[in-house]
Amino acid sequence: MKFGLSLALALMLLGSSACSHRKTYPLQGQVIRTSPSSGEVMVDHGDIPGFMPAMTMAYKVKNAAVLQELQPGDKIAAEVVVSKDGNDYWLEDVRITDESRRGKVKPVESHMLMAGEKVPDVPLVNQDGQTIRLKDFSGKAVLVTFIYTRCPVPTFCPRLSSQFARIHNELKTTPDDYSKTQLLTISFDPKYDTPAVLRKYGLAYLEGDASGFSQWDFASTKEADMRRLAQAFGLDYQEQDNQISHTMNIALIAPDGTLVKSWSTEWTSDELLKTLRQAAHRSAKG
Question: Which of the residues 44, 62, 76, 258 has an alpha carbon 20 to 30 A from that of 210?
Answer without folding.
Answer: 258
